[in-house]
Predict the 3D structure of the following.
Amino acid sequence: MVPAVGGRVDFVAALTLMLDAEAPAQPTEQTNGLFQGSNSDLRRIAAIDLGTNSFHLLVAAVDPKLRTFQIIQAEKATTRLGERDPETGELTAEAMQRGLEALRQFRDLAASHQVEQIVTAATSAVREAPNGRDFLQTILDELEMEVDLVSGPEEARLIYLGVLSGMPFGDRPHLLLDIGGGSTELILADSRDARALTSTRVGAVRLQRDFVQDDPMPPKRRSFLQAFIQGSLEPAVDKVRRRIKPGETPVLVATSGTAMAIGSLASSEEERPPRKLHGYRVTRERLDRVVDQLIRMTPEERRELASINDRRAEIIVPGALILQTTMKMLGVEDLVLSERALREGLIVDWMLRQGLLEDRFSFQSSIRQRTVIHQLQRFSVNQSRAERVASHALSLYDATRGVMHDDSGEGRELLWAAAMLHSCGQHINISAYHKHTWYLIRHGELLGYSEAEHLMVAAIARYHRRSLPKKRHESWQLVATRDNRRCVHQMALLLRLAAALDRRPEPVISSLRVHAVKGVLDLGIVPERVNQNVSLEQWSLESCAEVVKEAVGVKLRVSVQV
């Protein structure tokens, strides 16, 4: 039997959070060691979210040293547990049987990964049904799984932990909105604590069951449903508003299947739709267009949409109205999507209770750094060499503003990330590794970076050697705006110079002395030891002179400092 556990920790523990990095879409072979991390002490756990509409399983490999986790398998089963008996409100026998079968498959799959524990959360459907606890007892009797029944506030707390693990909050508070099948959680939080946790008994499945008789929905029914949603959510909205400090402008973050489906429809209007929706921004104007489109369609027409499955087509309209009404009530003009929620929060919570995050340093403030280091380990990059290149790159950035670049600060973090990962493609092909590096970064997971920033990091690494960007290159075409391309162009040149100094396994360069004036860049190499031969590094830097002159019109002069 695989033990299942639940549990709680104080909110202050959210100060220390982790992040995950999924494996790139291709290549998938792991036997060659390319994606095997350096830590052999990974601990595997599984998390199961027993939702109103569907059950979700995540199997995670937790790195106790880096204090991160990697999702190695994710499964979903549409159980429709929330389709309760209309007279008694009890879970139906059919729904419970679907749930049992899904849990049996999930348990066996988790066991095949040799997980040490399964952490669980049963939410509103089980919470509210008169026979909900009987269902949990049946699970224990038949499957030997103990499922934790969480309260509404506890559900909200787990959602907070999940979102916080994959999205940098910075100094701004965030409003987290999770639209489930039976309830909607609205949370006001920052990177240190959750200020307000609310759970309202209004969800996509519940509204569909109770209020939607005709589909497409008549205008009067839509108005009634919007008024009902507003009335139901008013206490939650009032609570979070009271806890927003003067001068603060919170960011609205939406998570759940409903939000992701709507985000997918909204992003389809883009000339280049994002590869992933995590971090994608949806304006209220675009959301309104999508909602109006969905309401006019029949369920059959909605099923034809690529981003909506059969069951989602039935419940997406009431879910969309919850999202639309909440945005209106909060007075926000856009939202950001998060692919992380309760099930990732279960993994975070387990790590907190295991003491893996007990040192209390702030992971939240370094999500970008952690996800880059995680990828670096997965690709077996020599970390000490990568850090040397990154250090040289940042030194050049700081010393050459106005000569080699005109970046206002945003590019510095992108340059660091690209420098740390610039050599990850060497394990595939040493001669053209910059192209493979682009592919691995492009198809990897960089939490805390927007889709545009992710593409920029990949492109900076791509152009640190060989040719300058060309219009025909896919890596260049995907960098959408002129400003972003200028940033990539300039940061890639700095990385080219920094990487040119990384010629040997052991460090020989102590520091750089940089003097930059208009049209001229003097680079002085300071050796690690007196009389150390650094002619190889000098030659390598000098070989970049022609490219630097062509790219930015700057003359590069290299010297060795005694």
